[in-house]
C-alpha cells in the first residue's frame, strides 16, 4: 500500500478493530490450558530470538505471555501476535534495531492451538521458509498476517480448508512464487486478501473468486498475473478497495468493473490497458477517494470536470481528505479537466493541450501537468483559491508570459517546477516569500535579469536549477550563507559574470555545482576544495530518492516497493558526464559533480580541489586555466569523468593519473601538455582523442614516438612502460581485445537475430536488458569502491 488517504486509513482502523475484537485483554486473568502452553513452548524453541522478545514466555499461565491472548472462560489461546512492532526502524541508535526480528523454524506444534483465531508474524525475517501446509489445520483461524517476513515458495492449497472462518489473509511483500491456488475461491468469509509484491505468476480466473461474496479489499499488485475472465462476468463481491497494479488486465478497460458500486480505491496502473475509458465509468457515482490509471496506453479525452461522489462515506472520512487521482503516462488528449474535491492530481506525460483552467487549484495539494502540450499563460488564480498547494509541476510544456505574482500566496509550497517552457521576464522577488520551498526549477526558459536578493529567505531550498536562461550579473556571495540544506546548485548556460564567490564553499551539503557556460573570470578559489558534500566516498553515502511528498491533515504518504508513489515529486538532474548529458533520478543522491566549463577562468588549478575525494565528475574544460595538472589528482579515486580540455595546462601528464581505475572518460585535448603519455594501467584505455591538440605529447596513444624510443616504439629504460619481451604477448593482447569485441557483438546480435523471429520475445528481451542496465548503474555507483 503506497498511499494512505481516507479509505486505506479507514481499512487500517477496521483491521485494528478486528484485532482488538479477537484479542480480549480480560483473558490475562485466566489460566491457560496446559496443552496450549506446551505447544507454545515447542513453537518458541524453533525460533531465533536475538533480542529476547519472548522473555516473558515462562511460568504456567501463558495467557500472561507477551503477544498471547486467551478466551476468558476456557483459557484457550485464541491469538498469537508476534509482529515486529518496529518494522521501519532497523537503526540501533533508536533502541529499536532490526534485532526485534524473529526468525527460525515455524513448528507444527501451532496446530495444537485448536481455538486459535489470530496469527500475526508480520515484519519478521523467516527468510527461506515456506508457508507451512499445516496452517490449513487451524480450523478456527480468522486472521492470518504473514506479510513482510521473507517467506518463499508457493501459497499452500490447504488455505482453502479455512473456508468457514478466515476473514483476513495478508501475504504481501514476501518472495512467494508459483500460481494462485483456485482453492482460495472457496473462502466464503474472506473480506481482506493481499498478496501484492511477490513473485507470483499465472492466470487468474473466475474460479479464484467463486465464493468470495464478502470480499471488500483485494490487492494482487506487483506480481505477474494475467486476468482472464468472461466479458460478461459479474463478480460475486462488492469491492471497496481494488488494486491490480502491474497485472495484465488489458487491452480493453475491464467491463466487469461496471457491476461494482462501492469502489473507494482503484489501482489499475501499469495494467496493459489501451483504448478509451468507457462513458459508463464517468457516469457512475463511485465514492472514489483514490484512482490510479497511470502507465497504460489509455487514450481519448477526459471529462471537462473531474468530480467524485462522497455518498456513502463515513463522516470521519469525508472531512479528512479529497481524492487522489493519477492519470499520468498515458495518451490522453484534449483539454485539462477542472478538478473538484481532489487533493492530488497527476496528468503528466500525456498529450493534453489548451490553457490551464482558471481556479484549477481549489482543494489541490499536488498538481502535475508536466510533459504535455499546454500553452498560454500560467493563470493568475493559480494560488488564489487553493493556498494549500505543496507541489506545482508545469514543466515541459509551451507556457508563455511571466511568472504570476499569485504564486507568492502558495505559502505551503515545497516544489515549484516550471522548467522547459517559454516563460519570460525577470525572476519575481515574491518567490522569496515561499520559506518552505525545497526544490525550485526555472531552467530552460527565457528569464533575464539578476537573482533577487529575496532568495536569501529560502532557507529550506535544496535543489535550485536556474540554468539555460538569460540571467546576468554577478553570482551573489550571499548564496554561500544560510543554505545548509542545498544539495544542487545549477546556474549553467546564462550570462553571469565576475569572479567565483569563495563563500560558496560554505554550502556544506552541496553535491553538485554547475556553473558552466557563463562569463565568469578570475581563478578558482582554493576554498572550492572544502565542499563537505563532495568529500564523502561512495561507500559512505546512502542512496535514497530525492522526492517531496505533500502532507496535509488526513494525507499520509508511505514509501515502499519499487514503484512510484502517487502524489510525489521525484527530483532529477542532468549531469554532463563522459562528454554527454545524462539524467539521474534514482541514483541522484549518489552523484557528486563540479562543472565550471565554458567560462573565462584563469590561473592555476588549486591543489585543494584534489581533496574532494567523493567527486565523480570534474569538468573544467574551455577555460584559460594554466599551470601543471597536480600529481595529487590521483586522490580522486571515485572519478568517472575528467575533462580538462581546451585550457592552457602545461608540463607532463601525471603518472599517477593511471591509478584512477574508475575513470571512464578522460579529455586532456587542446592544451600545452608535453612529454610522454603514461602508458600503463587506466591510461591504456584512452585513445588519441583524449590527448589531441597537445603538440608536445608523445606516446603509443598518439602513435608519436618519444625521444629515446627504439624503432618499434619501445620506450627506453628511463621511461615507465609495460615491458614487451618479444615473446608474442602483444600479439596475444591484440587477440584478447579482438575476442572481447567479437564476444560483445555475438552477445548482442545473436539474441537479436533470434528475437526478430517473434516480436513478443524481442520486446521481453530488451525490457530485461533495460532493467539490468539500470541495476548495474546503481550498483556501480554504490559499490565500486569495494572492488
UniProtKB/TrEMBL annotation:
<dbReference type="Pfam" id="PF08263">
    <property type="entry name" value="LRRNT_2"/>
</dbReference>
<dbReference type="InterPro" id="IPR046956">
    <property type="entry name" value="RLP23-like"/>
</dbReference>
<keyword id="KW-1003">Cell membrane</keyword>
<dbReference type="Pfam" id="PF23598">
    <property type="entry name" value="LRR_14"/>
</dbReference>
<keyword id="KW-0677">Repeat</keyword>
<protein>
    <submittedName>
        <fullName>Receptor-like protein EIX1</fullName>
    </submittedName>
</protein>
<keyword id="KW-0433">Leucine-rich repeat</keyword>
<comment type="similarity">
    <text>Belongs to the RLP family.</text>
</comment>
<keyword id="KW-0675">Receptor</keyword>
<dbReference type="InterPro" id="IPR001611">
    <property type="entry name" value="Leu-rich_rpt"/>
</dbReference>
<dbReference type="Pfam" id="PF13855">
    <property type="entry name" value="LRR_8"/>
</dbReference>
<dbReference type="InterPro" id="IPR032675">
    <property type="entry name" value="LRR_dom_sf"/>
</dbReference>
<feature type="domain" description="Disease resistance R13L4/SHOC-2-like LRR">
    <location>
        <begin position="109"/>
        <end position="260"/>
    </location>
</feature>
<feature type="domain" description="Leucine-rich repeat-containing N-terminal plant-type">
    <location>
        <begin position="34"/>
        <end position="70"/>
    </location>
</feature>
<keyword id="KW-0732">Signal</keyword>
<keyword id="KW-1133">Transmembrane helix</keyword>
<dbReference type="InterPro" id="IPR013210">
    <property type="entry name" value="LRR_N_plant-typ"/>
</dbReference>
<keyword id="KW-0325">Glycoprotein</keyword>
<keyword id="KW-0812">Transmembrane</keyword>
<feature type="transmembrane region" description="Helical">
    <location>
        <begin position="735"/>
        <end position="754"/>
    </location>
</feature>
<dbReference type="Pfam" id="PF00560">
    <property type="entry name" value="LRR_1"/>
</dbReference>
<dbReference type="InterPro" id="IPR055414">
    <property type="entry name" value="LRR_R13L4/SHOC2-like"/>
</dbReference>
<dbReference type="InterPro" id="IPR003591">
    <property type="entry name" value="Leu-rich_rpt_typical-subtyp"/>
</dbReference>
<feature type="signal peptide">
    <location>
        <begin position="1"/>
        <end position="27"/>
    </location>
</feature>
<keyword id="KW-0472">Membrane</keyword>
